[in-house]
Recover the amino acids of this structure.
């Protein structure tokens, strides 16, 4: 394998190979080989020409479709804040349910989520404050991957909600439906409790909402755009 | 960025305050009210008629309805099981304890009250057998009906309170009535 081919392979090592990236890889390799041939024809020796060709292409991140260069740590900091706000809001929503003995597990999970995300955010923030260089660090992230991830999470959530609606209905009314008995709800308290049983699984909506946040932040923190410092 | 930190702190304060209010004020208060209500359900004089009206049924053959009714009447803290004798329209309630352990007066009050409730709610029930460890009683619909001139309307709240519950605190009435309508087997 030629030196340039190895180099190009290395440039693409962070990316999953698709037809598009294979084409791009082949094109870059052809360009670098042409450049090397030119340089050799101008009198440079083989290794000097190879080195110069390599130096002319140190990264391919900006060529990948959907890649955006962002102030990654700033973006991550705001992502942490929004995640924390959403998960605390979710936790608060589960607290009144405890009065009706509904959703103690949901409340516990939300609380542990608040603690975990809170600690992560505080540690991350402290590191940023201690090392100012980190704040301006940039990195390429792929908006297409984020969109794909968002779509998958929303689809999974939607499926979960449909299944949980069916399961709750079966649990609450299964025997009435099976034996063709009248469905009775004894007053407003029983109705409120029933509605809360349906409400608890809906709280998982915070997962797809949190997954959607980075997409909104990418344009805000893209290098060259007006960014919040 | 600072605004969002402010929102986080504000939400945390709201969350912690709400959590403390719910866990340390509202839930203990509700539990105490619930315990009072459950204790009241053990006494015929304070039992909640509305908690058993949903078990009104034409047929004594509906076993789950019969069981649920007795699980919401006084003596429901005593372990029990049931037998149905559909031919004689007879229901046997088997309590897994002795009258001595439960208390003679409490048993008499409760059996009078429970029998009135069961005959008023289950239309075709004719006989109830109460079997305790070592002692058994039997009560017939006609005998319970004879205690009340308005048995057909006895499930109205006012009637229930005036003609059934208020008399449960009268020890002499309970003693005499028990002897008259509830027969040892």
């Amino acid at each position: 394998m030629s030196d340039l081919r190895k180099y190009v392979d290395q440039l693409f090592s962070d990316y999953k190979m698709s037809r598009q990236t294979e084409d791009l890889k082949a094109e870059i390799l052809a360009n670098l080989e042409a450049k090397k041939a030119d340089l050799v024809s101008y009198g440079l020796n083989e290794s000097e020409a190879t080195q110069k060709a390599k130096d002319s292409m140190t990264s391919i991140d900006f060529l990948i479709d959907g890649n955006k260069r962002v102030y990654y740590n700033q973006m991550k900091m705001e992502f942490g804040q929004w995640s924390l706000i959403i998960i605390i809001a979710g936790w608060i929503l589960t607290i009144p349910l405890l009065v009706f003995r509904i959703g103690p597990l949901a409340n516990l999970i939300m609380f542990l989520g608040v603690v975990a995300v809170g600690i992560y955010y505080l540690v991350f923030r402290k590191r940023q404050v201690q090392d100012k260089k980190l704040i301006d660090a940039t990195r390429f992230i792929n908006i297409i991957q984020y969109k794909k991830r968002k779509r998958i999470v929303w689809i999974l959530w939607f499926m979960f909600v449909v299944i949980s609606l069916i399961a709750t209905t079966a649990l609450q009314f299964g025997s009435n439906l099976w034996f063709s008995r009248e469905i009775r709800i004894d007053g407003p308290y029983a109705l409120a409790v029933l509605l809360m049983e349906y409400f608890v699984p809906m709280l998982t909506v915070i997962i797809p909402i949190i997954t959607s946040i980075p997409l909104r932040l990418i344009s805000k923190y893209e290098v060259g755009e007006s960014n919040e410092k | 960025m600072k605004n969002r930190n402010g929102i986080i702190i504000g939400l945390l304060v709201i969350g912690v305050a709400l959590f403390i209010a719910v866990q340390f004020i509202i839930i203990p208060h509700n539990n105490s009210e619930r315990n009072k209500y459950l204790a009241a359900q053990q006494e015929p004089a304070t039992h909640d008629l509305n908690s058993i009206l949903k078990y009104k049924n034409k047929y004594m053959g509906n076993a789950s309805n019969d069981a649920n009714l007795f699980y919401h009447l006084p003596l429901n803290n005593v372990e029990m099981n049931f037998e149905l004798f559909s031919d004689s329209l007879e229901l046997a309630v088997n309590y897994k304890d002795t009258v001595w352990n439960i208390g003679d007066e409490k048993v008499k009050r409760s059996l009078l009250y429970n029998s009135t409730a069961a005959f008023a709610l289950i239309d075709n029930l004719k006989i109830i057998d109460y079997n305790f460890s070592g002692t058994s009683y039997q009560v017939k619909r006609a005998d319970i009906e004879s205690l009340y001139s308005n048995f057909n309307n006895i499930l109205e709240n006012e009637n229930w309170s005036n003609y059934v519950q208020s008399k449960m605190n009268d020890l002499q009435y309970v003693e005499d009535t028990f002897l008259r309508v509830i027969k040892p087997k």
Summary: Residues 67-220 of chain A form one domain. Confidence is low (pLDDT under 50) at residues 225-229 of chain A. The first strand of chain A starts at residue 67 and ends at 71. DSSP finds nine helices and two strands in chain A.
